[in-house]
Amino acid sequence: MPSGCRLLATVRQVSAAAIDVVANAFAARTGHQPAGVWAAPGRVNLIGEHTDYNDGYVMPFALAQRVTIAAAPRDDDRWSVTSLTADASESFGRAELHPGMPGWQSYVAGIVWVLEEAGHHVRGADLVLTSDVPAGAGLSSSAALECAALTALADLSELTIAPLARAQLARRCENAFVGAPTGLMDQAASTLCTAKHALFFDCRTFEADQVELDLARPGLEILVVDTKTPHALVDSEYATRRATCEQACRLLGVPALRDVTHLDEALRQLPDELMRRRVRHVLSENARVLAAVDVLRAGRAADIAGLLDASHASMRDDFEITVPTIDLAVETARTHGALGARMTGGGFGGCIIALAPAGDAARIAGGVATSFDRAGYQPPAWFVARPSAGASRVA
């Protein structure tokens, strides 16, 4: 392991252990075995940042890291939730379900609320969960919790809900109940992804196509480095950028930036350089997503490297959502052998991804750790991402 750089636990071992841990903890707390164990993954966005609210395209893939839940129904209208990760337990009844409920349990309570709002009857239940999705890293730990809870509660209540509808319900939980203005990408990835594939997702039509991302065959791997940078400005800056994009749409007379067909002509119609740069990022990022689909389908996975580099430059220079730790991690990854690298997620902290020759991730991560130490930053954490399947029952 590189000095000063923490390797997150290998996923297959953690997932197997997580099933036993939650099942045993459930039995210890309730005195009986769970009816089953369910899990839903976090995600990495391979390419396509800040395109979602512009009706554009994204390409996430599900991680093997996931939220794992053991659960069984109750005979009353109450739900108890224990998080082994947070070492906390909460309970609530149907009468207590209201948007804005405080606390981590709101992500589970919100799932009950949206299901009931959609006309489903949800049985009371006991749930015990654990998670190995890094929290606060921009890898959608909240969506993983929502989708795991929804998958478990839907099965316990014998509800038939299509996968896309499940993602939409989980998003409504986050938007209307928890109060976070996210798009659908996180929940769609956690619900719809398949192993060894990325998800090409149209944020306007909600069409989803699986694109093969089997990196072992061409001798590649994707390194994820968590810079441990808190997302201090993400809410206010997100709102500002979204407002700028919406203003540009009004000036250009289009419903969304996705509808702009001629970039140079559109840029000439915009009144200031800042707005032009914001629009240029969104339109060029959409083009990069489409190009990534083409090269992956053509079996040229190594060719996404240049698209990752271009995406990072656009986020840094045009959309201005990177920070010094992120830029240093990307630059260091490249100088230590990454074929291409970029920030992933909404910006102002979080993680980078780097496309690397197979077996080089540890060395590249070690280089990032050394650069961070010299710069006075706290040590990063890292893992090799494995494109994995979406939410399901696992035991």
Note down, in words, how this protein is organized.
With 395 residues, the protein is of the alpha+beta class. Helices cover 42% and strands 22% of the residues. The chain is built from 11 helices and 13 strands. It has helices spanning 11-30, 106-117, 141-156, 163-178, 185-192, 234-252, 263-269, 273-297, 304-317, 324-335, 361-375; strands at 6-7, 36-47, 57-73, 78-83, 88-93, 125-131, 197-202, 208-212, 220-226, 340-344, 351-357, 381-385, 392-393. Strands 2, 3, 4, 5, 6, 7, 8 and 13 form an 8-stranded mixed beta sheet that branches. Strands 1-12-9-11-10 form a 5-stranded mixed beta sheet. A hairpin with a 5-residue loop joins strand 7 (197-202) and strand 8. Helix 4 (163-178) runs antiparallel to helix 5. The longest helix has 25 residues, at 273-297. The radius of gyration is 21 Å and the shape is globular.
Topology, pairings included?
Layout lengths: L5 E2 L3 H20 L5 E12 L9 E17 L4 E6 L4 E6 L12 H12 L7 E7 L9 H16 L6 H16 L6 H8 L4 E6 L5 E5 L7 E7 L7 H19 L10 H7 L3 H25 L6 H14 L6 H12 L4 E5 L6 E7 L3 H15 L5 E5 L6 E2 L2
Parallel strand pairs: 1-12, 4-6
Antiparallel strand pairs: 2-3, 2-13, 3-6, 3-7, 4-5, 7-8, 9-11, 9-12, 10-11
Helix pairs in contact: 2-3, 2-4, 3-4, 3-5, 4-5, 8-9, 10-11
The radius of gyration computed from the alpha-carbon positions, rounded to a whole number of angstroms, is 21 Å
- The beta-strand count equals 13
Biggest sheet, in brief?
8 strands, mixed
Shape: globular
Averaged pLDDT: 95
User: What pattern of helices and strands is seen along the backbone?
Assistant: EHEEEEHEHHHEEEHHHHHEEHEE
Give the amount of beta strand, in percent: 15-25%
Uncertain regions spanning at least 5 consecutive residues = 9-14
| Helical coverage, percent range | 40-55%
DSSP summary: helix tally: 11
| End-to-end gap | 32 Å
